[in-house]
């Protein structure tokens, strides 16, 4: 095949290929090599980059040629839904994490221990406090410091009241112990006394009677203390 005056078509005896060139060196027609080169160059590059996340594995761009297949794999806690050519990537509704850090790289870390209990710590692993906790209502709810202080205060108040009641009772016992009793045979005695103990006070009144032979003695008493409580006792004795 020879080149004509216009310089269009000729056969290359070295390569055995037909070549198409104009007189000025340009190619008027696309060759098979041109088509093959265009097809091979029509692919696209697949790349992965970190935008606030983490990239694991290949980081260099990968050329995807026509006819090649690209796989999109669902990693842990990821759900992929495909409908024809539409792909939806979402986070699992029930994700499982070893731990979660909130509030930035200096925020607390929430995780679990070997026993399955919740563990909250600072970014360096040291203990941290949980704030803005609502008051618990159920028996298994956590309590906040306000509730704890209220409970402790209630216990302290009840113990303080009990302590004062006990002091009043001891004051009543002291008053009863101070009551004199009859000692002459055939005689009776009415007596009164007062007692005190650590800020509480009490009064007592009593009656006693000795038998005519002086061997049998009856005694009874009643007392009232500053706590508003009443007490009393009765006794009988025989002497010989």
The largest sheet, given as strand count, sense and whether it forms a barrel, is:
4 strands, antiparallel
Q: How are the strands ordered across the major sheet? A: 10-11-12-13
Shape: rod-shaped
Beta-strand level of the residues, as a percent range?
Answer: 25-35%
Radius of gyration of CA atoms, rounded to a whole number: 52 Å
The structure class reads: alpha+beta
What do we call the CATH topology of the largest domain? Pantoate--beta-alanine Ligase, Chain: A,domain 2
What's the number of helices? 2
Give, in order, the helices and strands.
EEHEEEEEEEHEEEE
Q: Number of folding domains?
A: 3
Going by CATH, what is the homologous superfamily of the largest domain? GSPII I/J protein-like
Q: What ranges have pLDDT less than 50 throughout 5 or more consecutive residues?
A: 1-5
Return the CATH class of the largest domain: Alpha Beta
Helix content: 10-25%
CATH architecture of the largest domain: 2-Layer Sandwich
Roughly how many Å apart are the termini?
162 Å
The tally of strands reads 13
Q: Overall mean pLDDT score?
A: 87
Structure description:
By secondary structure, the protein is of the alpha+beta class. The protein has three domains: 1-47, no CATH class; 75-130, no CATH class; 133-240, Pantoate--beta-alanine Ligase, Chain: A,domain 2. Helices cover 18% and strands 31% of the residues.
Characterize this entry briefly.
This protein is an alpha+beta fold and 240 residues long.
For this entry, give a set of tags.
Trimeric_adhesin, disordered N terminus, transmembrane beta strand, 4-stranded antiparallel beta sheet, 3-stranded antiparallel beta sheet, Pantoate--beta-alanine Ligase, Chain: A,domain 2, rod-shaped, protein transport, 240 residues, 3 domains, transport, Adhesin, alpha+beta, 13 strands, single chain
């Amino acid at each position: 095949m020879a080149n004509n005056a216009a310089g269009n078509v000729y056969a290359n005896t070295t390569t055995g290929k037909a070549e198409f060139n104009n007189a000025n060196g340009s190619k008027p027609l696309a060759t098979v090599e041109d088509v093959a080169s265009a097809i091979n160059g029509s692919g696209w590059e697949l790349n992965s980059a970190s935008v606030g996340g983490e990239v694991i594995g290949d980081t260099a761009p990968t050329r995807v040629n026509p006819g090649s297949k690209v796989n999109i794999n669902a990693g842990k806690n990821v759900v992929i839904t495909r409908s024809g050519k539409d792909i939806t990537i979402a986070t699992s509704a029930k994700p499982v994490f070893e731990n979660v850090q909130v509030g930035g790289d200096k925020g607390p870390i929430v995780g679990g221990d070997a026993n399955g209990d919740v563990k909250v710590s600072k970014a360096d692993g040291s203990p941290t406090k949980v704030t803005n906790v609502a008051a618990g209502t159920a028996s298994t709810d956590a309590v906040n410091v306000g509730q704890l202080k209220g409970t402790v205060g209630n216990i302290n108040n009840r113990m303080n009241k009990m302590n004062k009641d006990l002091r009043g009772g001891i004051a009543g016992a002291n008053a009863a112990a101070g009551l004199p009793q009859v000692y002459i045979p055939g005689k009776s005695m009415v007596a009164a006394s007062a007692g005190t103990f650590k800020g509480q006070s009490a009064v007592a009144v009593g009656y006693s009677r000795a038998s005519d032979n002086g061997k049998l003695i009856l005694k009874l008493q009643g007392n009232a203390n500053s706590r508003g409580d009443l007490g009393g006792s009765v006794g009988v004795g025989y002497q010989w």
